[in-house]
Automatic annotation (TrEMBL):
The keyword Transcription does not apply. Residues 340-446 form the Pyridine nucleotide-disulphide oxidoreductase dimerisation domain. Residues 5-304 form the FAD/NAD(P)-binding domain. The keyword Transcription regulation does not apply. It holds the Pfam family Pyr_redox_2. InterPro entries: FAD/NAD-bd_sf, FAD/NAD-binding_dom, FAD/NAD-linked_Rdtase_dimer_sf, Pyr_nuc-diS_OxRdtase, Pyr_nucl-diS_OxRdtase_dimer, Pyr_OxRdtase_I_AS. It comes from the Bacteria. It comes from Roseomonas haemaphysalidis. Keywords: Disulfide bond, FAD, Flavoprotein, NADP, Oxidoreductase, Redox-active center. This is FAD-dependent oxidoreductase.
Length: 472
């Protein structure tokens, strides 16, 4: 008989979530983690980055107060105090992810590296552990591009960025995705000179119309942006050489060009587990395609070749699927059609479903509906009118995707995630009653554009005039 019902490798979002459910259901669970409990999200990702952004946004709001008639002096940034706030946020959340909590739930927590030694066993700290099922949730790390000389430069990644004791004088950021944009704005607001270098365009995955709003905000914050810039070499002293001959010198270099799965130390070959460069190959229900005892979750899963989604809430989504499949043997499979993502700059950029370009590439007939925050009363009252809500729908009113660029976009995207997942028609969304004045009205107004066009069409106006002349 196997020693455990379930062995979970990795105590990040996905691993902790499935361990929590399995342990509370009374299964014999072992949770193995070689580094810090809470994984990347708690220690070097979501939590510290959002804590740093909160400090940066506070400084920016102080500078903007003059627009509302409140004149404040230039904010004084205490870098040590900012760092203390970041570490304090981690410390406050850490008990939820701690060894003690999961041991109290009934799980065995083992702080060591796990390596498969057979299809049904792993070796942990010299101990062979067998299990009926395994979940590999070992996560990912920052990808390092093959740039000559980079290996000799003491560059930063998200794993080391939040441990810096000194404030960067000039931070070079290699990469124009969410991490690069968030950290660019955060450090600029906190008094650093910042240059972003990307081989493509900023926010390459996002709708260009919405990214333009972020680009303007970054420029206003003083961030220098170099798009379509190919780096051909790196030199000591945080220096980047570009293909066009330019030489960029900074005090610190942050590499944020993507993620790569933590596959190397797992001994997957010994367990007959197939992996791709993007992660462990699984079916749509996250089960290994070559070892039925093994499932994958979080950043390390490559379901049906779709690749990973480097988002903490995907780990929770995966855990729910695994709970149904492993604990109750119920059918369950992934559907990323209503998966939201947010870039937490200010203004934020939130997206769910297809972008306009993706919808057209999929051969959908598309109608695009927009409502700018410049026509939203709450945004006007706050003096923050940048951005818009953009809906991508079929002519028949089926919602395909929603993008929001604006203040608190991440808080607004939840409704639209439900709308796409539940296939709520535009006419129902247009009839939604929302409080006045709120930014949520912008989405309702965008959804109501087709109805307004029908209402004020020539036939409708003729009908209204005719009915108005008839006796009541």
């Amino acid at each position: 008989m196997a020693e455990h019902d379930l062995v979970v490798i990795g105590a990040g979002s996905a691993g902790l979530s499935i361990t929590h459910v399995a342990a509370r259901m009374g299964l014999r669970v072992a949770l193995v983690e070689r580094e810090r409990m809470g994984g990347d999200c708690l220690n070097t990702g979501c939590v510290p980055s959002k804590a740093l952004l909160a400090a940066a946004h506070a400084a920016t709001e102080a500078r903007r107060a003059g627009r509302l008639g409140i004149r404040l002096p230039e904010p004084e940034v205490d870098w040590a105090a900012v760092r203390a706030h970041v570490q304090g946020a981690i410390a406050a959340i850490a008990p939820q992810d701690s060894e003690d909590r999961y041991r109290a739930l009934g799980a065995e927590v083992i702080r060591a590296e796990a390596r498969f030694v057979s299809p049904d066993a792993v070796e942990v700290a010299g101990r062979r552990i067998t299990a009926r099922r395994f979940v590999v949730a070992a996560g990912s790390r920052a990808a390092v591009p093959a740039i000559p000389g980079l290996e000799d430069v003491p560059f930063l990644t998200n794993a080391t960025l939040f441990g810096m004791k000194e404030k960067p004088a000039h931070l070079l950021i290699l990469g124009g995705g969410a991490i690069g944009l968030e950290m660019a704005q955060a450090h600029a607001a906190l008094g650093c000179r910042v240059t972003v270098v990307t081989s493509g365009r900023l926010g390459a995955r996002e709708d260009p119309e919405l990214v333009a709003v972020l680009r303007d905000a970054l420029a206003e914050a003083g961030v220098s942006i170099l798009e379509d810039a190919r780096v051909v070499a790196a030199e000591a002293g945080a220096v980047l050489l570009l293909a066009d001959g330019r030489r960029l010198a900074g005090s610190h270099l942050l590499v944020a060009v993507g993620r790569t799965p933590n596959l190397e130390s797992l001994g997957l070959e010994a367990a007959g587990i197939r992996a791709t460069p993007r992660g462990i190959a699984t079916d749509a229900g996250l089960r290994s395609t070559t070892n039925r005892r093994v499932f994958a979750a979080g950043d390390i899963a490559d379901p049906e070749g779709l690749g990973p989604r480097y988002l903490t809430h995907v780990g929770s989504l995966h855990a729910g699927i695994l709970a149904r499949r492993i604990l109750f043997r119920l059918p369950a499979k992934l559907d990323y059609g209503a998966l939201p993502r947010v870039t937490y700059t200010d203004p934020e950029l939130a997206q769910v479903g297809m972008t306009e370009a993706e919808a057209r590439a999929a051969d959908h007939k598309v109608q695009v509906l927009r409502w700018p925050f410049a026509e939203n009363d709450r945004a006007i009252a706050e003096g923050r009118t940048e951005g818009l809500v953009k809906l991508v729908a079929t002519p028949g009113g089926r919602l395909l995707g929603v993008g929001i660029a604006g203040r608190h976009a991440g808080e607004m995207i939840g409704l639209w995630t439900h709308a796409i997942g539940a296939r709520v028609p535009l006419r129902d969304l247009a009839g939604l009653v929302v409080p006045y004045p709120t930014r949520a009205e912008a989405g309702k107004r965008a959804a109501g554009v087709p109805a307004l066009e029908q209402l004020f069409s020539r036939p409708a106006r003729w009908a209204a005039r005719t009915l108005g002349r008839l006796p009541w």
